[in-house]
Amino acid sequence: MKLLVAIDFSELAKKIIAEAEKLAKNLKAKVFLLHVIPPPSPIIDVPPDVEALLPPEELFKKESLPPPFDLPESVKLIKIAQLLQESGIDTAVIVAQNDEVTAIIDESKKNGVDLIMLGSHGHGALFHLIIGSVSEGVIRRATCPVIIVPSVKR
């Protein structure tokens, strides 16, 4: 069993990680932690350095990480992976640069995952109309089951 867990480091991330850990332990699943870096805007952003998109196995070999992996979010992702590994869960780190939906779908297919887990921030209808919803896009395009962790506490 392979589980892809999309992490955006919002307030919901801790809840997603806790749910992923429970599920991975119960299913004896390998966890792929995915963090997506949005593509640069051609108007205001500088294109990323080619060296910046290293394979995950290279991240663990480096003493200091090149940009953008030296950002706090990427360091947090690696630390989360290490904590999951310490609790007995086979864990891999994936950092992709693309729009969120495309990156999640592409990585799920590339790694042959059986289940995708991500959070829903619970934005209103107007937000979804103008901006769209990552969770909705993933559900529409996924070829495997998708678990959505809600932001609302019950």
Account of the protein in words:
- By secondary structure, this protein is of the alpha/beta class.
- It has one domain (2-150): 3-Layer(aba) Sandwich (Rossmann fold), CATH 3.40.50.
- Helix content is 38%, strand content 20%.
- The chain contains 6 helices and 5 strands, in the order E-H-E-H-H-E-H-E-H-H-E.
- A 5-stranded parallel β-sheet has the order 3-2-1-4-5, with helices on both faces.
- Strand 1, helix 1 (13-27) and strand 2 form a beta-alpha-beta unit.
- Helix 4 (100-110) runs parallel beside helix 6.
- The model is unreliable at 62-66 and 127-131 (pLDDT under 50).
For CATH, the homologous superfamily is named as HUPs
**pLDDT below 50 for ≥5 consecutive residues: which ranges?**
62-66, 127-131
Structural class: alpha/beta
Task: Name the strands of the widest sheet in spatial order.
Answer: 3-2-1-4-5
> How many strand segments?
5
Domain module count = 1
Q: Which architecture does the CATH hierarchy give at level 2?
A: 3-Layer(aba) Sandwich
Q: Give the radius of gyration.
A: 15 Å
Shape: globular
Number of helices: 6
Question: Main sheet, how many strands, which sense, barrel?
Answer: 5 strands, parallel
Q: In percent, how helical is the residue content? A: 25-40%
Mean pLDDT: 79
Give the N-terminus to C-terminus distance in angstroms: 29 Å
What fold name stands as the CATH topology? Rossmann fold
Order of helices and strands: EHEHHEHEHHE
* CATH class label: Alpha Beta
**Strand content range:** 15-25%
